[in-house]
Amino acid sequence: MTAKIEIRRANKLFDTGGRRIAALENVDLDIRANQFVTLVGASGCGKSTLLRSIGGLEDLSSGEIRVDGRPVSGPGAERAMVFQHYSLYPWLTVRENIRFCRALKIKREEITSADVEIASGRTDALIGLMGLAPVENAYPNQLSGGMQQRVAIARALMNRPDILLMDEPFGALDAQTREVMHDLILHVFALEKPTIVFVTHDVEEAIYLGDRVVLMAPRPGRIDSIYEVPLPPEREQDMKLSPEFTELKREILSRIRATSGMQTDRGMLDKLTATAQPGAAA
Ligand SMILES: Nc1ncnc2c1ncn2[C@@H]1O[C@H](COP(=O)(O)OP(=O)(O)OP(=O)(O)O)[C@@H](O)[C@H]1O
Fold first, then answer.
1. CA-CA 20 to 30 A from 257: which of 51, 104, 136, 144?
2. At what angle do helices 113-129 and 175-192 cross, to 10 degrees?
3. Cα-based distances in Å from 18 to 157, 219, 271
4. Domain locations along the chain
5. Cα distance between residue 68 and residue 77, in whole Å
6. Is the CB of 14 under 6 A from ligand 1?
7. Would you say the CB of residue 23 lies under 6 angstroms from ligand 1?
């Protein structure tokens, strides 16, 4: 069966002031339809670059990404993105923010009453699904971070995207709100069945949400290893305490440390301590 997203020998080089950075080197990955894939790895390993390339926001230096067999050459309505910063329109209410992207897609003079009805129905459904009914007429600056991110997710879902690309969407939220958002996104996933690619720094989040965890490594940015998550599809917070969960978390964390190039160097620490002693040579 062909994968929903096929990534073939993807390379991305950035040139910064004469220095070349290999953000992606020969990345090969297949993502099946309706799969929830999480990307983890040390800072700078190319997670966001890979996600943005799937979203068509970044051109590869070489290689190819195909969605449903067609090469990605730019953004498309079937691939919606959600970022860490909610990027809502501050002058629009929650309801208007959610509807806005659909309104943009149809020229005002071409809008039919059927379009309006469909958009309203979908907006209502998403407001209900995301628990936004009590704040539907509020403005973004009147909402907590968690609520704002619910609006951003609802807006991303408005056009029924096949693929949801999420770049650390819960990175700015406190631990409790994150847990609520985890269960919410799993509920959305079960109901709407998009294919989700989700970037995170948080290994626990990656395992709890993902069917598969893809671990990337830096310098050059590449795929280091892929883990199938040995948990049933219906996740519950208690599963985080299971031996399978804790063992996989330990394994992934240790692999991230090994690939980060930032392990604590005992010799270097001893040297620093010695030079910090009073009277030590500078
Ligand atoms: N627009 C850019 N110009 C120059 N270098 C870039 C650009 N975007 C990313 N890079 C570099 O490419 C590498 C990969 O960056 P990327 O943001 O994809 O990594 P990441 O794994 O998402 O990092 P983090 O976890 O810190 O967000 C890094 O070395 C980064 O500095």
1. 51
2. 130
3. 40, 17, 33
4. 1-78+163-173+188-282, 88-160
5. 14
6. yes
7. yes
* Spatial distance between the Cα atoms of 39 and 1, rounded to a whole number of angstroms: 23
Query: Which pLDDT tens digit goes with each residue over 64-81?
Result: 999 999 999 999 989 999
Residue type (1 letter), 11: N
Tell me how far the alpha carbon of residue 258 lies from the centroid of ligand 1, in angstroms: 19
Residue 17 binned pLDDT confidence (cut-offs 50, 70, 90): confident
48 lines ligand 1 (CB under 6 A): yes
The pLDDT of residue 251 is above 60 = yes
Is pLDDT above 90 for 86?
A: no
Enter the pTM of the model: 0.88
Give the distance (Å) from ligand 1 centre to CA of residue 160: 29
Going from the Cα of 236 to the center of ligand 1, the distance in angstroms, rounded, reads 33
Whether the bond between 161 and the residue before it is cis, its omega within 30 degrees of 0, is no
The CATH topology of domain 1-78+163-173+188-282 is Rossmann fold (3.40.50)
Question: Are 151 and 130 in contact, with CB atoms under 8 Å apart?
Answer: yes
Tokens of 247: 């063992």
